[in-house]
Structure formats: structure tokens, C-alpha cells
Specification:
Helix content: 55-70%
Shape: elongated
Distance between the termini: 20 Å
CATH superfamily: Winged helix-like DNA-binding domain superfamily/Winged helix DNA-binding domain
CATH topology: Arc Repressor Mutant, subunit A
Strand order of the largest sheet: 1-3-2
Largest sheet: 3 strands, antiparallel
CATH class: Mainly Alpha
Radius of gyration: 14 Å
Strand content: 5-15%
Structural class: alpha+beta
């Protein structure tokens, strides 16, 4: 993963609401959650949630898929592993 991608991901997660949304999606797993369900669970107004989901999607941390009239959002576990891998690369001189 490139440094710019990691910076974009960390920047997106450096906001309380986006961090809450991302953690909820990680807990939901690869099947994700509909935007309405996220809004209900976190008590976030739909326009506000839409903005934060866009930021997470632009940082490549979540993906979306249409399911009928709903958009379902799920975490991109590959991107998440890439960020963690970048941060821990050469950790402890290779002893961890």
C-alpha cells in the first residue's frame, strides 16, 4: 500500500462519526449494512451519514452495492489489512 493511500485512510478515520461507522461495518462483517440500518443504529441523520460514507468510500475503506432500493455498505478488509500492514511493517526489527 502506498503512503498516500494510508494517509487518506487515516484522515478518513480521524473523525469520530466516520470511525464509529467504520467500526460498526467491521462488526457487521463482509455482508455489510444498509445505509438506513447504519443511520438507525448510530442515530445519525441520513444526509450526515451520506457525507461520512462518501468520505470512507473515497478513502477506499468501504465499498457499496445496490440491493433493490438500498445501498449496502461493507468494509474493505483488504484495504484495512493494507493500512495495518503499512503501519506495522518492519515492526520491532522483525521480532514481532
Amino acid at each position: 500500500m502506498e503512503k498516500q493511500d494510508v494517509l487518506a485512510a487515516l484522515d478518513a478515520l480521524a473523525h469520530e462519526t466516520r470511525l464509529d461507522v467504520f467500526r460498526l461495518l467491521v462488526q457487521a462483517g463482509p455482508e455489510g449494512l444498509a445505509a438506513g440500518a447504519i443511520a438507525d443504529r448510530l442515530e445519525i441523520p441520513a444526509p450526515t451519514l451520506s457525507f461520512h460514507l462518501k468520505e470512507l468510500r473515497n478513502a477506499a475503506l468501504v465499498r457499496s452495492e445496490r440491493d433493490g432500493r438500498s445501498l449496502v455498505y461493507a468494509p474493505d478488509f483488504g484495504a484495512m489489512r493494507g493500512v495495518v500492514g503499512f503501519l506495522t511493517e518492519n515492526c520491532c526489527g522483525g521480532s514481532c
